[in-house]
Amino acid sequence: MEASKKAKHVVSISLGSSKRDAHAMLELGGQKISIERRGTDGDFDKARQLLERWDGKADAIGLGGTDLYVYAGKKRYTFRESARLIANVHKTPVLDGSGLKNSLERKLIQSLAAGSEVPIRGSKVLLVCAVDRFGMAEALLEAGAQVIFGDLIFGLNINKPLRSLKALSWWATLLAPFVTKLPVSWFYPMGKEQEVHVTRHPEYFLDCDIIAGDFHYIKKFMPDKLPGKIIITNTVTAADRVMLKEAGVRMLITTTPCIEGRSFGTNVMEAMLVALHGDKGPLPASEYLHLLEQYHIESSVEYFNTEE
Predict the structure, then answer these.
(1) What average pLDDT does this structure show over 231-240?
(2) What distance in Å separates the CA atoms of residue 115 and residue 136, rounded to the nearest whole number?
(3) How far is CA 79 from CA 69, 71, 137, 260, 297, in A?
């Protein structure tokens, strides 16, 4: 009984900005969990050292600010830089959030489509990057949304919107073998770049009803005003909420719950579930769904700029 009372410790080591660091303590099913997020401002050596330092000490480690893998068709490609980060981490499971995205985010879209607050069917949706959110992409299309995938637009600065999973898979299969060998910073904002705002192709944001996907892409490339838009994302801080409200956003839906004023990344939540499960992880999608229901972990919905 005493062992069960000892708090689980989950640490997220991120290549993102240290300004977004946070710590929280929560209790799920009688089990206390300490959650800690440490940004390294894009410093790969520092991230590697922290990952190795926490190996064998934390119950689970989240890897933020990058992905370990990307899927193209049925093949999985490993990001070379990310793999180097965890090459010497052997005792503690490291989770990048990809397993949870495929289950949690798919479930969220299905839930929204079944309700009446967010009109998914017939809505125009900009999914800023879909290769790391294939579950969300599939669920949006299955729910009847008109989706633009912005992978080429925002990841590679190629003004070519993709409008089908077939097109997305074709481009991913073509580019994944090369992109995964490049520095992650070439196509994903990290460190101080997460604080730099450069509006890119605002017409796609403004023409859509719903903006979904990675918040760092949304924040970096969105226009200053997004009147009446619905945002579906995560890793949103209190300061980000103020920014979105001032931009005119109507509704913010975070795929992970709001804990002490912010929503943590899927890598943190996946690491937390693996720590609770007591396994080395990652877990099957069905097990993540079971744990989400068991611990009553739900997405967060906030209304801005509304009379309601």
Answers:
(1) 91
(2) 17
(3) 6, 11, 21, 32, 30
